[in-house]
Design goal:
With about 450 residues, the chain is of the alpha/beta class. It has 19 helices and ten strands. Bound molecules: 5-phosphoarabinonic acid (PA5).
């Protein structure tokens, strides 16, 4: 059976082989910190063994809940932000047909998201769209106190209660939150919502393989058992020797490139279905490594689209970039370029060729051009986009992120910087308890 592969040949040519060889020990040492729970943030390592620890009963409970919501709903609104949003959104977008949301009589409910921003217009338009739809809500917040999803939940809870009555609304709401703490836990207990727990030892950005990601993904009609199988497979691969271990290799090369001043990593895809995988990855790596004035800046592009926008910068801008390409071997469908008698567009030399053949040549040509432009290239190959391989990809990135964070000597599992904007926002909103901060910030802006 094929697995996710990493190819470093177009990155190794930019570094000294002896320097890279040192990472054989370094990567192993950092991995041991994860296994033995001896590194920074070691109380947040629950994700590491999750694919092994997740029980069949738990998966069944998630699948049954998804079935219940699917039968009730044309639309399921998933409320959450950051780690309580991006994983589900990324996997659903990767696996869904790209025009499914436009199909009438769709057999799967449409999964829409709320509470991932504070846009009044977004939430108005979503409520307006839902006014004649049969819908349910999954509300996700580990802390149960995050402002964005709390505001959205208040809106959608009230709307459901007004439309269906309190009792029916409580059946249409599923909460995913902490086992004891937070406003959402209290409300959920009080209103008797079906709820799932986010374990204490799993941080938001590492939670996609918990109910946080699994319930919305199952609601969208995807096979969460296969997703976990893929993650489990990668969990084993991630323990193999350096030469066979894509996790060690990826974590090592990105750290070595960082020490050579390649401080921006661009995650590139050649399939727009992976755009939100990049958004999820940006949070995972940005929040895990960007601290103590350190860390690779995670950026993303979707090629060939962005070759006509950011391509110029990647080729010739500031030379602090390396790129990691997610390359998908096999397309889901086949479409060839038709022959044309008149050949006005001079494309007959491609007639009969699959579009993906052109895409792959664009990928190869771009890689070679970027290498010539001093952009090291790491290639991650996925045999195809399926639940299994997305499961492999998720665990691959999670484990490599932990090892990368330890190589950088930061705690990859905290996010102290996220509090700064919240403190200012609460001071400006005059939240009770923030009186002193309100006074200080008002002086600053007057
Ligand atoms: O990774 C993280 O911890 C954050 O992105 C959180 O997921 C995000 O802030 C949402 O938090 P919560 O689930 O507590 O509402």
């Amino acid at each position: 059976m094929k697995h996710l592969q990493v190819d470093l040949k177009n990155a190794l040519s930019f570094v000294n082989q002896n320097d890279f060889n040192q990472y054989r020990d370094f990567a192993k040492e950092q991995n041991e910190k994860v296994t033995n729970k001896t590194g920074k943030g070691n109380d947040f390592l629950g994700w590491a063994e999750l694919p092994d620890n997740i029980s069949q009963e738990h998966l069944q409970d998630i699948n049954e809940t998804a079935k219940f919501l699917r039968e009730k709903s044309e639309v399921i609104v998933v409320i959450g932000i950051g780690g309580s949003y991006l994983g589900a959104k990324a996997v659903i977008e990767a696996l869904s047909g790209q025009f499914d949301h436009l199909k009438i009589n769709k057999e799967n409910p449409h999964i829409l998201f709320a509470g991932q921003n504070l846009s009044e217009d977004y939430h108005f338009e979503l409520l307006d769209y839902l006014k004649d739809k049969n819908y349910s809500v999954i509300v996700i917040s580990k802390s149960g106190t995050t402002t964005e999803p709390a505001i959205a939940f208040r809106l959608f809870r009230k709307d459901l209660e007004n439309r269906f009555g309190k009792e029916e609304a409580s059946k249409r709401i599923v909460a995913i939150t902490d086992v004891t703490k937070g406003a959402l836990r209290n409300l959920s207990d009080q209103e008797n919502y079906k709820s799932f727990i986010i374990d204490d030892d799993i941080g938001g950005r590492y939670s996609v393989l918990t109910p946080v990601g699994l319930l919305p993904i199952a609601c969208a009609g995807f096979d969460i058992i296969e997703l976990i199988k893929g993650a489990k497979e990668m969990m084993q691969i991630a323990e193999t020797d350096f030469d066979k271990n894509p996790v060690f290799q990826y974590a090592s090369i990105r750290h070595l490139l960082y020490t050579k001043n390649k401080t921006t990593e661009i995650l590139a895809n050649y399939d727009p279905r992976l755009n939100f995988i990049a958004e999820w990855w940006k949070q995972l790596y940005g929040e895990s490594e960007g601290k103590e004035n350190k860390g690779i800046f995670p950026a993303s592009v979707s090629f060939t689209t962005d070759l006509h926008s950011l391509g110029q910068y990647v080729q010739e801008g500031l030379r602090n970039i390396f790129e990691t390409v997610i390359s998908v071997e096999k397309t889901k469908f086949n479409l060839t370029i038709p022959d044309d008698e008149d050949n006005f567009d001079k494309l007959n030399y491609l007639a009969g060729k699959p579009i993906d053949f052109v895409n792959k040549m664009a990928e190869l040509g771009t890689t070679l051009a970027h290498i010539d432009g001093d952009v090291p290239n790491v290639k991650i190959t996925l045999p195809e986009i399926s639940e299994f391989y997305i499961g492999e990809l998720i665990y691959f990135f999670e484990k490599a992120c932990a090892i990368s964070g330890y190589l950088l000597d930061v705690n990859p599992f905290d996010q102290p910087g996220v509090e700064a904007y919240k403190k200012n926002m609460f001071a400006l909103l005059e939240k009770p308890g923030f009186e002193e901060e309100t006074k200080t910030i008002k002086k600053r802006i007057d």
